[in-house]
Design a protein that fits this description.
By secondary structure, this protein is an alpha/beta fold. It has 2 domains: 198 residues, Rossmann fold; 107 residues, Rossmann fold, CATH 3.40.50. Helices cover 40% and strands 15% of the residues. Helix 8 links the parallel strand 7 and strand 8. Helix 3 packs across helix 4. Keywords: Amino-acid biosynthesis, Pyridoxal phosphate, Transferase, Transit peptide.
Length: 339
């Protein structure tokens, strides 16, 4: 295996994560199920790619200047905020991160630890002016009016997000599989990962099947299947994925073939299996992605290759996914080693 080149700090260390063969999922389906190890990005998640793409775009537009005062404002479920804060630190900018207070304690503590100006707000639906996205936008506008270089990252509708995945993530998957990829599955929060990878893979082979993985309570799967933005029944403990009331700008026009709605119990089955059987610690969205990949592989039949995203590590959800009391309170299975 060739040695990787020396990277220049955070900005040079994002991208080029390995694809990992998921043994149990592959054996169960007779296919190659491959997970992109996004927890190996410097900020620990796939959202480092979006954060870097958005800030690179801001620099190219002259909205931020490395080494000169500047502020990055964003509303996030946590991981994009972490990526933005670390990338901003590396260029001498401050970060103001608005987060729903219901997000995992581990992510909130990490944001404080890395120097973000953290602004937790009550969790409210997108239609409410108090929703974290709207709060972050208004905050950025106030800071812009006061003078100084300030940007609102706007990860949901900023197409620099999906361009980063089209330019890098999708190309990496194609090259790592040597073009032998039959399907790709991924959950959506902003939609940047799924849309960008879809555009990259379809440009190289329009027969690659693109499947959105969705938690219960989200409206994205119905939108893909029927064009209606109406949430499915139920709810989910997963963080940062699914949309109950709107389609983010990054998903508009993306070539998506189908969607799978995955209940939490099915996603957690893969979170726990990957940890105890394969030594891979991942969060709930990664478990949901693998569950969708398994469904797609079974539908395609043996001999196919399905790629997906291992979005982040499980340590960011210790107080929820690996907390027996929390799991029992939600009627979810508790892994035997914690029971």
């Amino acid at each position: 295996m060739p040695a990787l080149p020396i990277a220049d700090g955070f900005w040079g260390a994002v991208h080029n994560t390995p694809l990992i063969r998921l043994q149990r999922a592959s054996e169960e389906t007779g296919c190659e199920i491959l997970g992109k190890a996004e927890f190996m990005n410097p900020g620990g998640s796939v959202k480092d790619r979006a954060a870097l793409g958005i800030l690179q775009d801001a620099v190219e537009q002259g909205l931020l200047v490395p080494g000169q005062p500047g502020t990055v404002v964003e509303g996030t479920a946590g991981n994009t905020g972490i990526g933005l804060a670390l990338a901003a630190n590396a260029r001498g900018w401050r970060s103001v991160i608005v987060v729903p207070e219901t997000q995992s304690r581990e992510k909130l503590d990490f944001l404080r630890m890395i120097g973000a100006d953290l602004r937790p707000v009550p969790a409210k639906p997108y239609a409410d002016p108090g929703n974290y996205v709207h709060v972050s936008r208004r905050l950025a506008e106030e800071m812009q009016a006061a003078g100084g270089r300030t940007i609102w990252a706007n990860q949901f509708d900023n197409l620099a997000n999906r361009r980063a995945h089209e330019q890098y993530t999708g190309r990496e998957i194609w090259e790592q599989t040597e073009g032998r990829v039959d399907a790709f599955t991924c959950a959506c929060g902003t939609g940047g990962t799924l849309a960008g990878v879809a555009l990259a893979l379809k440009a190289r082979n329009d027969r690659v099947r693109i499947v959105l993985a969705d938690p219960e309570g989200s409206a994205l799967a119905p939108w893909v299947k029927a064009g209606t933005v109406k949430a499915t029944p139920g709810n989910s403990i997963t963080e940062g994925i699914g949309q109950a009331a709107r389609v983010p700008g990054n998903l508009e026009g993306a070539p998506i073939d189908s969607a799978e709605t995955i209940p939490d119990a099915e996603a957690l089955q893969w979170v726990f299996s990957l940890l105890v059987e394969e030594g891979l610690s991942v969060g709930g969205s990664a478990g949901l992605n693998v569950a969708a990949a398994v469904r797609v592989a079974k539908a395609l039949g043996p001999g196919h290759t399905v790629a997906t995203i291992l979005c982040d590590g499980g340590a960011r959800y210790q107080s929820k996914l690996f907390n027996p009391e929390f799991l029992r309170s939600k009627g979810l299975p508790v892994p035997h080693w914690l029971a």
